[in-house]
Amino acid sequence: MTAPPSAPTAPSASAVHAAGVDGAGDAPGRTLRVVVVNGSPSEKSKTMGLVDVVLQELSAKLAPEGVAVDQTRIDVYRLGSAFTGAVEREHIAPEVEAALRQAEQADLLIAATPVFRGSYTGLFKHFFDLIDQYALANKLVLLAATGGGDHHALVLEHALRPLFGFFQAMTVPVAVFASSGDFDGTSLLNPRVYGRVEMAITDVLDLLKARSAPSPIRR
Asked: Could you tell me which Pfam families the record lists for this protein (predicted)?
């Protein structure tokens, strides 16, 4: 798998961008609802540059199977004061509630954040502080992060995976990290990271197939 010469086309920069699920004419179960929770505080970021590669690889692998990828992107920094000032789920604004529900209802959740002072960003954590405790149970979650150097890759196992372990989510075994040196601006260039993305997507597809297979357990 080789890196493209230019950056992939980024999804909409709106706080919540949804293309619709199982649109008219789609066969049932032929659309994979993918929700990205973007913890970056910037409109153009290396974090979303990495996620764009993940989404492209996922779409390329599913297209031959006739499965469409419905992408929803939630930029937490765009959710505004109604989000940052929220303390309890019961009193949040409708647009914030809609974003939380989209994350909870995803078939695949991509949790992506830059590393800030050794961990995920505060807004990223605040978003998941408002998620229902059991809404992500058994949810397929792909972890992605970016940082200034390779040592920041520890955030995947020491911060992100335990967070989703609390939610009893099913985190994909292969997580993806890219450091600043892997990019030209926001364009991912390092073939090694592309290979890691490919491994992660293979994990995702294997887990999806396992979920759709008939259970061998007879009751």
From this structure: FMN_red (PF03358)
Q: How many CA atoms lie within 13 A of 22 on its CB side?
A: 6
* Domain 30-212 top-level CATH class: alpha beta
Within 53-95, strands assigned E span 68-75
CB 82: neighbour CB atoms within 10 A? 14
Instruction: Write the pLDDT tens digit of every residue in 164-211.
Output: 999 999 999 999 999 999 999 999 999 999 999 999 999 999 999 998
Q: How far is CA 131 from CA 92, 118, 140, 182, in A?
A: 12, 23, 15, 32
Nearest-angstrom CA–CA distance, 131 and 87: 12
Mean pLDDT of 93-114: 97
Closest of 76, 74, 68, 73 to residue 21, by C-alpha: 68
Collapse the DSSP code of 53 into the 3-class scheme (helix H, G, I; strand E, B; otherwise coil) and give the result.
Answer: helix
Burial track 105-119 (b if 16+ CB lie within 10 A, e otherwise): ebbbbbbbbbbbeeb
130: which 2 tokens?
């408002």
Q: Report helix, strand or coil for 215.
A: coil
* 150-176 as b/e: b if 16+ CB within 10 A: eebbebbeebbbebbeebebebbebbb
Q: What is the pTM of this model?
A: 0.85
CA distance 50 to 1: 15
Residues sharing a CB contact under 8 Å with residue 119, sequence separation 6 or more, in sequence order: 125, 155, 159
